[in-house]
Amino acid sequence: MKYPRPAYGDPSVPTVSHTALFGMGTRTLPVLEKPISIRENFRRAWMRQDPVWVPNSMTDTYGSILPMLNGMPEADFGSRERQDWTDWFGVEWTYVPEAGGSMAKVGSHFLEDVLDWEKVVKFPRLSDYDFAGEGGKFMKGWDGEQIIQCDVGLGCTERLVSLFGGYSEAMVAMAMEPEATRDLLEAFADWEITVVDELLKTVPLDLVTYHDDWGTERDTFFSEKMMEEIVFPPTKRIFDHIRSRGVCLELHSCGHIERFIPYMLDLKVDLLQIQARCNDIAAYKRKWGDRVGFDVSVFPAPGATKEQLIADIRKAVDDYGAGGGFYSSVFAEDPELVWTGASELFYYSRERYDAEREAKKG
pTM for this structure? Predict the structure, then answer.
C-alpha cells in the first residue's frame, strides 16, 4: 500500500464537510491531497487520458437538477412524504418516497393521440423562467474547484412516456405512428438544445447527465429499427450539441440495454450510467472501454464491514478503471464507512494509475 489511509477519528487528520447526494445530509470526510485540480482530473478521466484518481461524485462533484425551473418540489430526495406536482410541460407527477423518485401520476394522460401533439404539447417558453437567477444562486454554492454537474432531466423517450402517462401507450405510438412520434421528438430536441444553451449562459458546466431509460431488466422497450428511425436522430442532435460546447455527456439509461450500446457508441456518449444488476459492465468495459467510460456506484451490502467495503471498492477500480474512463460514487450511511469509502477509492485508484504510468515507461 503506497499511500497511507487517514484513520477514522484521528484528530490530527484535517477534515471537510460535504453535502451528500439525494438529501442524505452532510458527511465528514478526510481532506485528500490532490496533485492536480479536481476538474483537470475529471477531464482526464472521461477522456481516458492519464487520470490520477477515480473521480468520486461525493467529493468531486457539485450538482443540481435546478428543480425550481422544471417544477420539481424542492423537498429533497430523502423526503418520506408523497407529493403531487406538475412539471413545466403540464404533466402531473407523484413523488414516491418508496421509490426514491417521481412517477407519472396514476391515471394521468396529458397526450392521448400522438397525431395531436402539435395542438396539445406546448413547449415551455424559456423566457418565462429565471435561468440567470437560478443559475446565479446555484453558482454561489460552488467551491471553485469541484466538477459542475447538471441533470437536464427527461430525455426523448422519457418525455414521450411522461406525455402519454405510461410506457405501453408511448410504445404503441412509436409502433403505430412512427413519423408523428419522430416529429414530436425532433421538436423536443430543438427545445432541449435551447435549455442547455440557457444553462450554459450562467453555469459553466463540466458534466451533463441525460436521462433516457430504454429497457426493463430483461430487455429493451423497443426495437433496433425504432431506435434507428425514431429515437437516434433527435438524441444525436442533442448529444452533438452538448459535446460541441466542451461538456462531458453522461447517459443514464436503466434496463438491460446491451443491444443498444453500439448506438450509444455512435452517439459518442462519454460516460454510461447503467444498471449493474442487469448488465455485465465489466465485460462491456473490456469490449468497449476504449470508446466509452462508465459511471458505476459502489453500494456496501447491509451490515458490511469496513474490510468488505474496501474489497468492493478495489474490485470496482480493477474492473472498470483501467486506462481511465471510470467515475464512481460510494453510497454508505455509517460515518466510518463513508470516510473509508472516500479515502479508499481515492488512494487505491491513485495506486492503480501510478502503476499504469510506471508500466508505460517500461
Answer: 0.94
